[in-house]
Amino acid sequence: MQLDKFIPALSWLTGYRKSDLKGDVSAGLTVGVMLIPQGMAYAMIAGMPPIYGLYASTVPLILYALLGTSRQLAVGPVAMVSLLTAAGVGAIAGVGTEQYIALVILLALLVGVLQLLLGVFRLGFMVNFLSHPVISGFTSAAAIVIGLSQLKHLLGISLPRGERLHEILAGAWQHVGETNLLTLSIGIGAIVLIQLVKHWRKSFPGSLLAVVGGILLVWGLGLHEHGVKIVGKVPGGLPALGLPSFEWATLQSLLPIAAAIALVSFMESIAVAKAMQSRHRNYKLDANQELIALGAANIGAAFFKGFPITGGFSRTAVNDQAGARTGLAAIISAVLVVVTLLFLTPLFEFLPNAILAAVIMVAVYGLIDHKEAKHLWRSNRSDFSLWVVTFLATLFIGIEQGIGLGVLLSLALVIYRTTKPHVAVLGRVPDSFFYRNVERFSNLEQRPDVLIVRFDAQLYFANVNYFRDSIDELAAQKGDALKVLIINAESINTLDSSGVHALEELIEQYRQRGISAFFVSVKGPVRDAMAKAHLTDKIGGQYFFMSNQQAVDAFDNIRQGNDFTPYILQTNK
Amino acid sequence: MQLDKFIPALSWLTGYRKSDLKGDVSAGLTVGVMLIPQGMAYAMIAGMPPIYGLYASTVPLILYALLGTSRQLAVGPVAMVSLLTAAGVGAIAGVGTEQYIALVILLALLVGVLQLLLGVFRLGFMVNFLSHPVISGFTSAAAIVIGLSQLKHLLGISLPRGERLHEILAGAWQHVGETNLLTLSIGIGAIVLIQLVKHWRKSFPGSLLAVVGGILLVWGLGLHEHGVKIVGKVPGGLPALGLPSFEWATLQSLLPIAAAIALVSFMESIAVAKAMQSRHRNYKLDANQELIALGAANIGAAFFKGFPITGGFSRTAVNDQAGARTGLAAIISAVLVVVTLLFLTPLFEFLPNAILAAVIMVAVYGLIDHKEAKHLWRSNRSDFSLWVVTFLATLFIGIEQGIGLGVLLSLALVIYRTTKPHVAVLGRVPDSFFYRNVERFSNLEQRPDVLIVRFDAQLYFANVNYFRDSIDELAAQKGDALKVLIINAESINTLDSSGVHALEELIEQYRQRGISAFFVSVKGPVRDAMAKAHLTDKIGGQYFFMSNQQAVDAFDNIRQGNDFTPYILQTNK
Fold this sequence. Notes:
Chain A is mainly α. Chain A has two domains: 19-411, no CATH class; 423-559, Transcription Regulator spoIIAA (2-Layer Sandwich), CATH 3.30.750. In chain A, 61% of the residues lie in helices and 5% in strands. Chain A is built from 25 helices and eight strands. The first copy, chain A, has helices at 2-6, 10-13, 18-45, 51-55, 59-67, 79-90, 98-120, 132-149, 151-155, 165-175, 181-200, 206-221, 248-280, 287-303, 313-321, 328-344, 353-365, 370-379, 381-396, 399-419, 464-478, 497-512, 524-532, 535-539, 548-559, and strands at residues 75-76, 310-311, 423-428, 435-437, 450-455, 484-488, 516-520, 544-545. In chain A, a hairpin with a 6-residue loop joins β3 and β4 (435-437). Chain A is elongated, with a radius of gyration of 31 Å. The two termini of chain A are 36 Å apart.
């Protein structure tokens, strides 16, 4: 029972049904066939030799299958994480050098350890701070950067490193004259082929077809002797188990990028996993266990010469469509990659880089989310601005900076909005006990001696001054006729010590001016805060009401010298 | 009319009443007499020669009197800002060197420009982010640091620079053996004298008495020849007008500390100004004009060899008690300091440093706010933690770091709280139309087929998952009997695009399971967000209700096949 919690795979392994096998095998083989070209292509994005993409597609898949709670999620190399890897490590070491490769492997270890720690300390909720507009703006810009980063392979030219749009474009503009037309034709041909196959039959692995076609073409016609760049000799065999070596200084310099990858990759992975879970509903997802599983998978990658991986959109969708029922499908994919590593690597020698570039460009094109931008423009301007800022910052300032800025800005907006919240004066809907915002509804009844104010935010340090100013201004509009201030607290969700202090001062000063202060619909947590600070006693328990009408009626009773029976409920706590 | 806005002094200057003169003169002289010892003492905290404290007490006062909106606020050198100055500049240059003095003057310019810009761009609201527990914890710790920083003058010993409690105490412990007992006696005598005078008559300037006594004692008995350190020869005359010189690199290194001083000093000043305004109410305070006035005063300080200044607690209180009615009082104080600079500086030669240290220690002792800490411990543990963290960080990590950490932590807590807000299931109060939290009140009525949920926070990207999970869990508890989910949205104050998306998905999935979704008390801004994203149409306008009871009744009508007339109000917008 307990073991189930640590190794969720036991829940499907122990009761494995024969009926699931067909789907698992078919899905596992399909995803495996996709994984081989994609893995090599994404290794190229990460600035690694293509073979490392296959290394990253073995042990990590099996570790996730054992420890993860999703049964359809296909982990492995993905474009976004590979790009972040290149952006982060490329700033420290030259792409393709031995030091670069060692740092990327170390990065995988760091990402894994961070994810493991986040999971163990149950900090999975942090991913919630990535808002939808930020994710969408970031993904769209990252897709453009990833796509354009492959321009050099598509054109067959050399370009200086650069992850910013203007740098990439300026570099390409300078060297476009050196384009190898043969390479370009192969690349464009592959793009057209993959797109056509996709239209014809979605589940057919068009990229594998392009890979096979490209190899045959180059090998048959000897195109590599005419300037078409190829993958070249690929070492065969499985990756050797090895401890990533490191120094504290490099570890420190990798930490920021590792943190960004840990969160972004978890975010991508959990989003896909949730979508799958909601289609099946025969198992439960646990965000923190997911972090632990991804952490273990990345640590596994580091020990077997892999680079940072995560659960990706496209292969997971294919896995699900092809019938994956359990984690066995992922294990079968991994076995297929192992077989490839053992016996098929010589085949990849003649694979042109342009084909891998085509695979990448087709894959990332779908990630440019202009629909969401359009939708936000129409429905929510402030979220639209967030999208645009994140998009532009990712394109022109940098990959990590883009997402960092987006997150900070979205949190700052949340805070800013609560500093000047919506404040409503309530009036009575004729012939009813309902009170609504007088600026929103016509014909509401207001009395000169009664001011009912609703403050639409938690009352806390950053808005106590605004609260006070708003009420003073509204009271001033009423003039001397005002006799009772009714604070409708139904939307004050929390109250901190500054809020308590502000209320205390307000009530005191209004009482001195002969104006009573009543409270309506005060929430439990706010009642608690008031009671603890002895504010309830100062206001008087009898001045708390269940509804606006009750408060108005009680005020009339008091004015006429009548008693009124406060409607006090018995509370549990 | 327009000129009034830029030079608020015109509003009292043009209609100056003779009846105000007596109070203004009396207050101006009293504060001036306080200002002379305090100015010199606070210059010492800032690491400047005492005479600079008098320089900072001339032109800035007059500029504030002309441009400020408060009529009682007494600006000039204050302890906290002087300490921040020493902490910031001391890290760049050796205290007492010419470079140090030049940097402090430049800092005043930078603080002034920042405040001016904040005021012009109407960013005065930023001060709201300093919550009460953070201010109180910071002030208390800063008071302790300021007081202990004077230990060397009180003991007559030399100590290495240090603004952290453990550094100061370790230094003092090492050198305590070198204490000059004569100096110590003078200092303790002054403390006792000031305290006694305060008990006897609060408005009497005890510190001036101590200064005069100290000068006479040292001069008469020649104590400076027995190791009592004195202020020494003081250059007479007014400060020369001079342009602060600077390089861009030093400007950059001073920027963080200037930003901290600009905000902290504005916060201190506006808090006192508000307290005064609420006592008088015959003028209006304008936070942004206050920033402009303080900015001008600091720029003025920089041009006349002053250091950063602001409106302070103690002298403002004295100014008010002594009868200040307009800014004329401040101008009279400044004139008194000018007269002192012109004719009385030779008197200060024999003033012992220990007397100034005593003045400071008495002044800051009152700022240690243990009462607030006790109050928060009882009424609000989370605000208490903020107080403690800010207090300890200011003591042991550093002055600026302390307040910075406090602000960040308080904002992080605000955000964190909204990610896992209070969620209530509502039940009916028997024999009424009121619905309340079933966990808080006893005997509420619940129906197996109806789930009424109230989510107590704005619905936005960081809590959509929690929202979804909470509702799913509550719905699961109801089981198959559940037929309608009523979302009481009275405390959902705003809705972003992630919130819209979450609601859309929720409604869709519950409908598929045969469960209707109704909405109650949706606020105007949230209604707008729903309408713009076409969510209102998808839900159906007839499923929005004014009260829980309406929603329940409508549901019963639908179940029984009856029509129900939705109660739709005519809205203005």
